[in-house]
Specification:
Number of helices: 17
CATH class of the largest domain: Alpha Beta
Oligomer: single chain
Helix content: 25-40%
Strand content: 15-25%
Shape: globular
CATH topology of the largest domain: Rossmann fold
Low-confidence stretches: 1-14
Length: 690
């Protein structure tokens, strides 16, 4: 609630303070501090004010500096006063400092970075408190005994949590095979932080995982101590949960990537589960990396940061081996549960033998056995929709998005063509828009088609699907997973959503369809993501005492990512991959910075990209030419009304700060020059190079 106004203040000029603020404005022209007089004695860095701005309505503004007297060089007669201040919605001084770091690191506006820490929504007019995930049933649980490996890892984390200044801000990489009990270590760590009077943040890569995670933490700590923050909450729910965290009513906040900004002021630990997942990279401004923000917040607060995964990212493992993180390992499953057996199904052989179905002979047999034994089957395909593209068999025309230029996927349920990048949806025409022939046909296979074919092949089974289409409605993902857990669903089909951290007993087999599909994506991380997806999907099997089988269907069994995944050999994969990364100077040996120039005129966008490359080389010297790729037409050449050209920069660690300075200055000058017909977007280590 905002309170106070300058008009009602009687304080003399001697009591007046002056503050620098960042005004909530979208224009890059005002991306700088403005100075105001402030009559409120309790104002501090992080206070939220309402300030008049350029003759318009008062705007929200966060304080970035407080001065006891008028700063030198300013005319007091031209300084206007802040009108109101809100204590409830203010943020910490530490948050302001991290927002300033984010502005430099991710080339975003100051106001964009600060908005990450601010509450969204508003208080209920009726005073009612809205509690998300209140339906989750979580009975109190007795903590299980730790294995020797778990105890060793937890003891080291507990030691750092209670350490003095020399280990404040410690980051651990917890590398534990699937089923090794990483979650129990998280629970013990949060309990230890609570015992010390500190709060915790627990991050999961998918919103679909929050009900399972919330249930575990609620069972251990009680519903009143667990807050939830993620984008699927209503605006009112997000506001109420933010205020619960802000007031210290919760001891742990669970959520997806945005929960890294939860307003705890006495942080003990930040946990990032499945730290390798690309969903931790924001694809909207500000395009931050959740891992980097988590490590930064933990270090700033003197808290412990835990990055957990069965398949750590190559970057995180390199940092651990370089001494930036401390590596903790769990090599055995809890309770001696057997590791699932991975078996290859060479689809080239299947095709040669006349099998044109999506199921190899091996997978079909295992699914049949599973149904007879009352077990569950999990099928994984990282491609949603019915078919990935629609083409004319007569002229070769391919339906593409008018805004993005990408192929439209076919969704049979509503006979629509959908862009999986921007969401544009249109009906499939009866005839080809290019030649008029009635020859449009959908090609390839997505999860919707797999669901249809599975129901035909196994009519006696209860089949369900979990992807972005079926989980769009609030609570739908939780219901789908609960039905699978409770045995109401025999076969669950899903995208990568089902490969992340789900823990259900009785899953045998797991079928990985088109395991090599990701290898063909033009991205230096394609092998890493393929290895991770196979390993993580396989980890959903064998969550019990019985043996289980994972069938990996592929046309490329010789690919090193697949070969190492089949053997469960993370070390072998890492050593091969890090050698390739070093030879090509890809992360972790550089930052990949994408500079995109966009304009309604394609020539202006192309010219902007060329000028950007020339300016960089003029300042940093021609020796950097080898580290600049492009300029070139962007993979998504047209987005909305704008044409896009880009260049990629490999910024070595020693050059990162220089590139930050050069690119920040260039972006600010270009985007505030009304004479230019193009604008610039800069992204650090984009999650996709397409």
């Amino acid at each position: 609630m905002f309170y106070g106004s300058f008009a009602s203040q009687s304080a003399g000029e001697a009591r007046m303070k002056y503050v620098d603020v960042i005004v909530d404005a979208k224009s890059e022209k005002v991306d700088r501090p403005f100075t105001y007089a402030c009559p409120f004695d309790t104002v501090r860095v992080g206070s939220l004010l309402k300030t008049p701005f350029r003759g318009g309505k008062p705007r929200s503004a966060y304080v970035t500096a407080v001065h006891e007297s008028l700063p030198d060089g300013l005319d007091g007669k031209r300084i206007v006063a802040a009108a109101e201040m809100s204590d409830d919605e203010s943020i910490s001084e530490d948050s302001v400092a991290i927002a300033a770091w984010m502005r430099r690191r991710y080339f975003c506006r100051y106001s964009e970075a600060l908005s990450c820490f601010a509450p969204s929504g508003s208080a209920s007019k009726r005073g009612a408190k809205r509690r998300p995930e209140a339906h989750i049933d979580a009975s109190a649980q007795t903590p299980p005994e730790l294995t020797d490996e778990q105890q060793c890892a937890f003891s080291r984390i507990r030691e750092a949590l209670g350490a003095e200044s020399e280990e404040n801000g410690k980051t651990f990489l917890l590398h534990g095979v699937t089923g090794s009990g990483k979650t129990e270590i998280y629970l013990r760590t949060v309990a230890e932080a609570e015992r010390r009077g500190k709060q915790s943040i627990v991050l999961v890569p998918e919103i679909s995982l929050t009900p399972q995670t919330i249930g575990r933490f609620t069972a251990r700590f009680g519903a009143d101590k667990v807050a939830v923050l993620h984008s699927k909450l209503s605006a009112g729910e997000r506001y109420d949960e933010w205020m619960r965290v802000r007031k210290g009513e919760a001891v742990v906040c669970v959520g997806a990537r945005s929960a890294v900004f939860a307003p705890f002021e006495n942080m003990g630990v930040i946990i990032v589960d499945e730290e390798h997942e690309t969903t931790y990279k924001s694809d909207m401004a500000p395009k931050y990396d959740t891992i980097e923000v988590a490590v930064k917040r933990a270090r700033s607060a003197g808290a412990v940061c835990i990055l957990g995964s069965a398949t750590p990212s190559v970057v995180s493992m390199y940092r651990a081996r370089s001494g930036l993180y401390e590596l903790l390992t769990l090599t055995e499953r809890v309770g001696g549960a057997p590791v699932p057996t991975l078996r290859i199904a060479d689809m080239r052989y299947e095709l040669a033998e006349g099998n044109k179905t999506i199921f190899s002979e091996l997978l079909h047999a295992k699914m049949t056995e599973s149904l007879r034994a009352g077990k569950k089957t999990l099928l994984f395909l990282n491609r949603r929709g019915y078919s990935p593209f629609i083409s004319c068999r007569s002229c070769g025309y391919v339906m593409k998005c008018e805004d993005c230029g990408l192929s439209l996927s076919y969704h049979k349920r509503d006979n629509s063509a959908v862009c999986h990048f921007c969401g544009r949806r249109k009906p499939v025409p009866a005839v080809c828009p290019s030649c008029g022939a009635q020859a449009l046909k959908h090609f390839g296979t997505g999860t919707e088609k797999v669901e249809e074919l599975t129901k035909k092949a196994f009519p006696e089974a209860n089949v369900s699907r979990l992807d972005l289409d079926t989980s769009a409605k609030k609570g739908s993902a939780g219901r789908i997973l609960k039905d699978f857990k409770d045995g109401k669903t025999d076969i669950l089909i899903g995208t990568q959503m089902v490969a992340k951290g789900l823990d259900f007993a009785g899953v045998d087999p797991v079928g990985i369809l088109a395991a090599d599909a990701g290898l063909n994506i033009p991205d230096f991380r394609s092998a890493e993501r393929t290895f991770q997806l196979i390993t993580q999907a396989a980890g959903r099997a064998g969550r019990g005492a019985e043996d289980s089988v994972v069938v990996v269907q592929t046309y490329s069994p010789e690919a090193y990512a697949i070969a190492y995944a089949l053997k469960g050999d993370y070390e072998g994969f890492y050593e091969t991959e890090i050698m390739l990364r070093k030879s090509l100077m890809y992360p972790p040996f550089s930052d990949i910075i994408r500079v995109t120039c966009y304009a309604e005129d394609p020539a202006a966008a192309s010219d902007g990209a060329a000028r950007a490359a020339d300016e960089i080389l003029h300042i940093l010297g021609p020796a950097e030419r080898k580290n600049i790729l492009g300029p070139q037409e962007a993979a998504i050449a047209k987005l909305g009304a704008d044409y896009r050209y880009c260049l990629y920069i490999k910024a070595a660690p020693g050059m990162r700060r220089r590139y930050e300075t050069v690119l920040s200055d260039m972006k600010r000058k270009n985007n505030t020059d009304d004479a230019l017909k193009y604008r610039i977007i800069i992204e650090v280590n984009p999650f996709s190079l397409t």
